Amino acid sequence: MTYTRIIGTGSYLPERIMTNAELEALVDTSDTWIRERTGIAERRVVAENQTCSDMAIEAARAALDSAGVAAADIDLIVLGTCTPDRVFPSNACLVQRALGVQQGAPAFDVAAACSSFVFALDVTDRFLRTGGARRALVIGADTMTRLLNWRDRGTCVLFGDGAGAVVVEASDTPGILSTHLHADGTQEDLLNVPWGPGLGYERLDETSGKISMRGNEVFKVAVRTLGRIVDETLAANGLKKEDVDWLVPHQANVRIIQATARKLGLPMDRVVQTVQHHGNTSSASIPLALDAAVRDGRIKPGDLLLLEAFGGGFTWGSALVRF
Q1: CA atoms of 73 and 38, how far apart (whole Å)
Q2: CA–CA gap between residue 283 and residue 223 (Å, rounded)
Q3: Residue 52 falls in the annotated catalytic set
Q4: Are 238 and 273 part of one and the same domain?
Q5: How many domains does the chain fold into?
Q6: Are residues 102 and 186 in the same domain?
Q7: Residue 150 sits in the same domain as residue 188
Q8: 193 and 306 inside one domain
Q9: Domain that holds residue 213
Q10: What's the pLDDT tens digit per position in 291-323?
């Protein structure tokens, strides 16, 4: 039996920090309101000449260094993002070129909004289990601030930019125990970016390329679906809630994180929470949180981790991982 194990983690955040106080000058909001509703104190913003792939490259380098693996030893790159630099080539191909990953190795992007990293991890796990690759980079990276209407207080306070990555390799020791992916396109109007190049430039208006979100409705669906996927993941592995050592959730909103922790019966000191430092970084948020907890020693070899995410589409997914 071949399994997939995480052997290294890495992350990258832009230098520019935007505080809640700065947002008070842009929209009708307050530091107190943002902290109470979202848990966010600050977010990171890419520099004017910085791209999503730039961040992905830095996170990937950190993960390779953590794993003690050379880029030339990677034979697959799967990159989750909803903010690629270009229509094509994919950000994964740009990472491949920049790092010197072997030519000819498959490299491609996965787009599932905030769930993209979990979807990318699932795809990579299937590659390794079936012998399609031996060692891979799985990356989540997004420049969400480039999708924001800075006059919309319902969205501009929530998002930030960043990237996270893991190195995984085929192993005879269990690592990724199971992954679970879902989507429901019938509710796309609740959370979307209402434009893309396929729609044609004649449909450009002031909302084009900006996030549109009906926050209360999204919150309700997210809490409900994440609660169900917790049950699904545990049942698939014959485990109880108390078997989970760490919840590593999508860092969207502290209230959603707390609701999922309650579903698991986990105290918040067993939940990795970094949203306060970088906001909702979409595809990047789970690998960012994972890297933070690995590097500060909270997550240790042998710990059982539950990763879960929810995003526009709607999409949602989970991964149960023995670290």
Answers
A1: 40
A2: 18
A3: no
A4: yes
A5: 2
A6: no
A7: no
A8: yes
A9: 177-322
A10: 999 999 999 999 999 999 999 999 999 999 999
The predicted model gives 91-96 an average pLDDT of: 98
Choice among 82, 93, 250, 278 that is catalytic: 250
For residue 199, pLDDT over 90 is answered with: no
Closest C-alpha to 159, from 286, 282, 16, 22:
282
**Candidates 114, 156, 277, 278; catalytic one:** 114
Secondary structure, 3-state, 20-32: HHHHHCCCCCCHH
Known catalytic membership, residue 182: no
H or E, element range at 9? strand 3-12
With tokens 């730039």, the residue in question is: 54
pLDDT tier, 207 (very low <50, low <70, confident <90, very high otherwise): confident
DSSP 102: P
118 confidence band (pLDDT: 50, 70, 90):
very high
**Residue 214, beta-bridge partner list:** none
Alpha helices of 239-279 — where are they, by DSSP H? 254-264, 275-278
Q: Residue 111, Cα to own-chain centre: how many angstroms?
A: 11
**Which residues are 247's β-sheet partners?**
271, 306
Q: Which of 4-18, 107-121, 151-165, 185-199 has the lowest mean pLDDT?
A: 185-199
